[in-house]
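User: Could you check the structure of this?
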Amino acid sequence: MEESTAESTAATADALRMELKKTIAEILDDGGVSEDRGETDGSSRVLKAIDEAVRMLNLLREVESKLPDSDTSSSSPTSLPEVPKEFKCMLSHAIMSEPVVIASGQTYERRYIQQWLMCKVTCPKTREVLSHRLWSPNYLVAELIAQWCQANKYDRPEPSDKPIGLFNDDIDLLLQRISSPSSVEDQTKAANELRRQTKRFDNVPASFVAEIPESITRLLTPLSALGEDIDSNPGFQKDIITALLYISGLEENKTAVAQHPLVIPLLTKSLKQGTAKTRRNSAEALWLLSKLDSNKTIIGNSETLKALVHVIKEDHFTAAISASYAVFHLCCLPENMGKVVSEGLIPALINRIKERSYVYIYFALLALMTAQNGVIEEIEDLGFVDGMFSILRNTSCSVTEENGTLIFRRMCGLKTGDRDRERTRLKLIKEEEDKYSTFSKLAKQGSQRAVMEAEAILQWIKRSGTGEEK
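Assistant: Sure, the predicted structure tokens are below.
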């Protein structure tokens, strides 16, 4: 009996949703704009429709409250309700905060249609040529949206005059000029404009992947076609890679971008060729893409790791920093660690640390790598133990303290079977503590993590000194 009642209630809710959707569509089709809604028969009809829609909204909420939790989860106060598509502007793809109606009778978000009408004389939806470019506030639709938001406890955005970027048609036109150029000069100008738009406006990267057909292919194919002549147009290369960087910044784009067959090879090539800004932006794009776990394997299975290590080793410090962040994320996947170590990451990091610039970044990556077999021995063989002592002794950076103590704590517990190496390691760490009290100070004054690591080192020194640890 209870199951039958629940099914009946669910059916009633579905019927109400369908009727509500139909009523909303009728209201939007009428496009009532008169502030005095009693002025015409049309306005009176729309007003009655709004009252009916509000009545159905309230009834729907009452019916949904009687449904089991599994049936009402989508309308639960703890979850975000789905906005009816009729309440969304087709230009902004968001719920309208200032709906206005234009000559075609269609309703849009004010600031979006304003920009559209600055350079176009057509309706975005119907494509018909408008008799004029004027618009009027759609008070009736605004009220209906307000009622829906109140009934669903939806946080409606405030009206804004924030500038907006290109519309999909404009992005598509830029891609046409990039992928099928009338001239190299026009192609370069289009790439530059797309780069500026992706940087300045959030809606451009958001729609680029999701709504523009074959967008990544059309953007990258001309650059890929240059082959080894990629340096022939460095400005074009820089703008394409930079646009790709901003497109990669959106979480919802990361999977599609990284999985596209042109992306990782072109970013890798741009780590080796191009301007300093191109190399830096390539590294930064890889860093952003590598934040997604599923992308770590894709990037790690390419020549990209080798190119990133080369950037850390040889390139300008801004590119090296971005490359280090990328490698850090990629090496959270253990199988990538051995690859970067074999490409010479450890000496590259040590040389960067010796420059005493952005030490905390390189020290953090070095600490991460000490989890890989052979890395601590490589640090010792490169003669950098004294250098790490000096940094740890003089730093005021808590991140460097934490990573430095982590490295030494791992050194303390490392068993290699080489007794001479282990005795030398103990001697160096004990001498540092005896002479400078480095670990005692950190155990008293360091951050919580540094204190924990320093105390573990002191305990190890104590046990080793009394012969408890063989």
